[in-house]
Please model this.
Amino acid sequence: MKKIAFKTLGCRLNQYETDALASRFHTGSYQIVDFNDEADIYIVNTCTVTNQSDQKSRQTISQARKKKEDALVVVTGCMANNYKESLLESKAIDFVVDNERKASIYSIVEKHFRGEVADPEGFDKDVFSYEAAYKTFHTRSMIKIQDGCDNYCTFCIIPKVRGRATSRPAEEIYDNIREVIQYGFKEVVLTGVNIGRYEDGATDFEKLVETILEIPGDFRLRISSIEPDGFTHRFFELFAHPKLTPHLHLCLQSGSESVLLKMRRMYTAKQFRQMAEKLRSMYPDFNLTTDIIVGFPAESEAEFEQSVTMAKELSFSHIHTFKYSVRSGTRAERMEEQIGEKIKNQRSEVIRKISEENKRNYYKSMIGKQQRMLVERIGGDGVARGYGENYIPIRLKAAGLEKNQFVDVEITGLHEAKELEVTAKVI
Model:
């Protein structure tokens, strides 16, 4: 039995695809081991959204090669699309598999060990041909509903490395969800590149979610990162359903109307604010998290302050802060007045501190309130950890708990070690 290790960088879409691959290898009688352990095969699922992502991906590839000299190293993910030629020249890599053929990695590895020619280019392109993952690295099950993007934001390389927007057939999604529920998963997370633009015939994203919520079973549904454009009142009403978690990672990027226009975003700061305020008016404890880019070309101090104001006033409980990173081939690469790293670092630190304060305030506001916790792991000290429906990290010490179990709890306080968590008691 050969040992195989996986490392995933970047988004939840990558996580879904790694989970599906790992499940396939496990079915094929491979032993899945930790990436830090010695293995016969290392699969590195890369990210290339920023320069920092590129650096982390290259470091991870180098680490894989150093762990075992004769191991098979397979590199896939967005870096495999963005830097394919240079990666193919690397002696540290045996196979470079682009996103369109990622689902074929099991077959490529099998052919290699049978001594056959295993050219990734010889496999068909198909971004949806993953089997339902029954063995994953997470308690929750990611479900890929869409891939690619047609927005062409001026800073973003995703359309180049993920291709044009395409949606998975709705019936395949429903079948996939029924399968993972049968496998015992209690939380399903919808993922893709631009999931709000999902469309399969008469089924748009709102109809898709509505239908999923009617699937029988004891599970909850979470929507992953989504763009804030094109939603009707029907979308907001869906969150009244007990299975749909009251949390969205809604991508802001900037609080400045002028910067959003230069970014070629498909919404305004005013529209974003209206959407956030509507969710909070309908569901007062609704948890909003977001992304903000600092240091976009020619971003003035006044424009940055507009992002600061939005970050404070909309009280995002977490802000994923990106320092603008030049991506080759994008329109923003050719823009004048590129911002220096010192200013980017300063602005990033400002947003980071706001994010920390917002998180603490939001968690405090939940003390005394109830959450349905999904237990994700139990430590040797008997402390269970997991998330509530509002995507709050909870620590709970109680007898008789098991992994992948729903527990109704009351939030009792805050606990801060490596990261801020809330404490709870069973009710």
